[in-house]
Design goal:
The complex is a heterodimer of chains A (about 110) and B (about 120).
Chain A (H helix, E strand, L loop, with lengths): L2 H32 L6 H8 L3 H30 L4 H26 L1
Helix pairs in contact in A: 1-3, 3-4
Chain B lengths: L11 H28 L5 H10 L3 H29 L4 H26 L1
Helix pairs in contact in B: 1-3, 3-4
The chains are: A mainly alpha (about 110), B mainly alpha (about 120).
């Protein structure tokens, strides 16, 4: 991969990290509050179904994590396993697309 | 930081790097399962409730608390890294930043555990 492309990946991971930082704070606060007194599907879905706000927050969350996680895994594969080059890059893209699809399905399931 | 950084393992920043990396790996492995579970809501509330009842077992609850700690640790460790990369390395502040990151992560896990019980 060219140095320019590596720089773009570095920037994409940092930019996605900033978005994730905000999303994770919201997610942590929500989780800590939601588990009080036990968690039921009715209570959870009652909060998220039909909510544009939760669809937007979790949409951003999934998009950012689908960028952030594969780039991080690519770095770990390179530094700890010595796995780099086209196959590692392709695996990185596959992981990103899989997270995006699974995440989008999860959002549809809890917000529609 | 690369694997060659093992020579620096006496430094607290090395252990912060290890925690950040291992927590990231654990979260990356957990995330697809989390999405698959949430996707069960497509089959209705009852399907999701079956899974939620399973999560009430002590071993699963302990795993959830550990996951909250890992998520919070990856968040706070990541914020420290962003600070180092975009503001600069302040040697004298590193130990304080790393201790704060660990403290906030432990606080989140404890708050989650207390509400869970």
């Amino acid at each position: 991969m060219s140095p320019g492309a590596e720089t773009r990946l570095w920037l994409a991971q940092r930019a996605s990290a900033v978005v994730l930082a905000l999303c994770v704070v919201v997610h942590l606060v929500t989780m800590i509050a939601a588990v009080r007194g036990g968690l039921t599907a009715a209570e959870m879905l009652g909060r998220t179904r039909g909510s544009m706000m939760w669809a937007t927050v979790y949409g951003l969350f999934v998009l950012a994590v689908s960028i952030h996680a594969p780039i991080g895994l690519r770095t770990v594969a390179s530094e700890w396993l010595g796995w780099r080059g086209r196959t590692a890059d392709a695996a990185c893209v596959i992981v990103g697309v899989a997270l995006l699809l699974l995440g989008a399905r999860a959002i549809l399931a809890v917000t529609l | 930081m690369t694997i060659s950084a093992r020579g620096n393992r006496g430094h607290v920043a090395y252990w912060a790097f290890i925690v950040h990396r291992l927590s990231g790996l654990a979260l990356a492995l957990f995330l697809p399962l989390h999405f698959l579970v949430l996707g069960q809501a497509l089959e209705g509330e009852a399907a999701l409730d079956v899974f939620l009842r399973w999560t009430e077992t002590p071993l699963v609850q302990a795993s959830e608390i550990a996951l909250v700690f890992l998520l919070a640790a990856h968040l706070t460790g990541g914020l420290r890294l962003l600070f180092v990369e975009f503001v600069g390395w302040r040697s004298e502040a590193q130990k304080m930043l790393i201790a704060s990151a660990g403290g906030v992560a432990a606080f989140c896990a404890l708050a989650f555990a207390l509400n869970l019980m």
